[in-house]
Write a structure and sequence with these properties.
CATH architecture: Alpha-Beta Barrel
Strand order of the largest sheet: 6-7-8-11-12-13
CATH superfamily: Metal-dependent hydrolases
Order of helices and strands: EEEEEHEHEHEEEHEHEHEHHH
CATH class: Alpha Beta
Low-confidence stretches: 6-10, 167-171, 329-348, 365-371
Helix content: 25-40%
Mean pLDDT: 84
Shape: globular
Length: 371
C-alpha cells in the first residue's frame, strides 16, 4: 500500500498529514474563550493547493491545562489523572483516536500514568512533558521514572523545547535570555540517559533562526554520536508569517542542514505539528491560517528541493510521525502475522505426516488399546 498515492491520470498528489502536536483547547484559565473542539475543524476535510489535495488524517492532542501551573495555587490547573481523563472525554466519539499523556514529574507520579494506560488501552501513544509550563528543568532526575515507563512500553516522548526568549526578523535578531527549563541541550542530556526512547523536541527549539539552529545542531550531534534518539516537530517554526510575504527561511534552512548533515540524511528526524488550537488556530480565520501554514511549507519544499521535494514532504507531513509513533504496533502486527503463518505451516505439516503414515499410526494406537 502506497502512502500519499499519485493520481495516475492527472499526476496530482493526494498528501496525507499527521499533526503530531495539538491540544484539547487553548488555555482557558488564561483568558481564552475558544472551543475545546477547535482542532476538529482541521481533520478529514480535504483541500487543494496547486492541484494537490491535502488531508489531515490524524492529530495527537494533549491536555493543555495539565501542562501549566496556576500561579495562585502553585499547582497545575489539572493534575495528571484529571487532565488526561479530560482530554479523552473531550474527544469522545470523534475522529480523534490517539492522545499524548501529560506527565507532571514534580507533582505527579508515574503510577498515575501506569493506571491511565491500563484503564485506557490503545488510547495513549506517547507521553508529553512541558518543562517550561511546570517549571522543572528538562534534565532533572524526576523525569527518569517516566522515561523508564516509556522505554518499557516502547512509546515516544514529546518535550516542549524553547532555547531562548527571542525576537526574530528575517534580516535581524537578538536574544533576550536563555530558557531555564527547556533548552535542547537539557533535553539531550536527559535523552542520553534513556537512549532507547524517542524524544521529540516540540517547536524545534522555538521561534527564530538561533533557536531552530540550536535544536537542529543538537539532533545532528546526537545522530553522529549515536547516543540518543532526538527528533523535532515544526510547531511555531516559520509559522508567524504574513500570507503575502511568507518567510520560510528557518524551516528550509533546518531541512537543508538535516539533509546534508555530517551524520547523513536526517530528514526523517522532523515532523509536522502546529500546537493547534493555540493562538491563531482558535480565531475566526483559524481554518484559513491552518491550511495556509501547510500550503506555505509545501510550496517552500517544492521550490527548494527539486526532485527530492515529494519525498521530503511525505516524510515531514506523514511518514516520520507514523514511524515514530506507530512503529511498535507495526512490528507487533508483523510478528503476529509471522506467528500465524508458522502455526498454519505446522498444522499443514502435521496433516501431511498423518495422511502419509495413517496405517502405522492406527496400528500403534490399536496396540496401546486406544482404538
Amino acid at each position: 500500500m502506497r502512502i500519499n498515492p499519485v493520481n495516475t491520470i492527472s499526476f496530482k498528489r493526494n498528501i496525507n498529514i499527521i499533526d503530531a502536536h495539538t491540544h484539547d483547547k487553548p488555555l482557558e484559565k488564561m483568558g481564552s474563550n475558544a472551543s475545546s473542539f477547535d482542532v476538529l475543524k482541521f481533520m478529514n476535510k480535504p483541500f487543494e493547493s496547486n492541484g494537490d489535495t491535502f488531508t489531515v488524517k490524524k492529530m495527537f492532542p494533549s491536555s493543555l491545562d495539565a501542562c501549566f501551573y496556576d500561579e495562585l495555587t502553585g499547582k497545575p490547573y489539572l493534575d495528571e489523572s484529571k487532565g488526561n481523563e479530560a482530554v479523552l472525554k473531550t474527544f469522545e466519539n470523534t475522529d480523534v483516536k490517539e492522545f499524548l499523556a501529560v506527565c507532571q514529574p514534580k507533582d505527579g507520579s508515574v503510577e498515575n500514568i501506569e493506571k491511565l494506560f491500563k484503564n485506557h488501552p490503545n488510547k495513549f501513544i506517547g507521553l508529553k512533558f512541558h518543562p517550561e509550563g511546570l517549571k522543572l528543568e528538562a534534565d532533572s532526575a524526576l523525569y527518569d521514572p517516566y522515561l523508564e515507563f516509556a522505554k518499557e512500553h516502547k512509546i515516544p516522548c514529546l518535550f516542549h523545547s524553547y532555547n531562548s526568549k527571542f525576537y526574530e526578523h528575517p534580516k535581524e535578531h537578538w536574544t533576550l535570555d536563555k530558557s531555564l527549563y527547556s533548552r535542547p541541550e537539557q533535553i539531550y542530556t536527559l535523552a542520553k540517559r534513556h537512549p532507547d526512547v524517542p524524544f521529540i523536541m516540540a517547536h524545534c527549539g522555538g521561534t527564530g533562526d538561533i533557536n531552530v539552529e540550536e535544536a537542529v545542531n543538537t539532533i545532528i550531534t546526537s545522530a553522529k554520536k549515536g547516543d540518543a534518539k532526538l527528533y523535532a516537530d515544526l510547531s511555531w517554526v516559520s509559522i508567524d508569517v504574513k500570507e503575502d510575504e511568507p518567510f520560510m527561511g528557518d524551516l528550509i534552512n533546518a531541512i537543508k542542514k538535516l539533509k546534508n548533515s555530517e551524520a547523513g540524511d536526517l530528514t526523517d528526524r522532523i515532523m509536522f505539528g502546529t500546537d493547534a488550537p493555540i493562538d491563531r488556530f482558535s480565531k475566526e480565520n483559524a481554518v484559513e491560517s491552518y491550511r495556509g501554514y501547510i500550503k506555505n511549507i509545501h510550496k517552500a519544499i517544492k521550490e527548494n528541493f527539486g526532485t527530492d521535494a515529494d519525498d521530503i514532504a511525505d516524510k515531514i507531513f506523514f511518514k516520520n510521525a507514523k514511524k515514530v509513533y506507530f512503529n511498535k504496533s507495526l512490528k507487533q502486527s508483523k510478528t503476529l502475522v509471522g506467528l500465524a503463518f508458522l502455526g498454519i505451516g505446522a498444522l499443514v505439516g502435521a496433516g501431511i505426516y498423518i495422511v502419509k503414515n495413517k496405517d502405522n499410526i492406527c496400528k500403534n494406537l490399536k496396540e496401546i488399546k486406544l482404538f
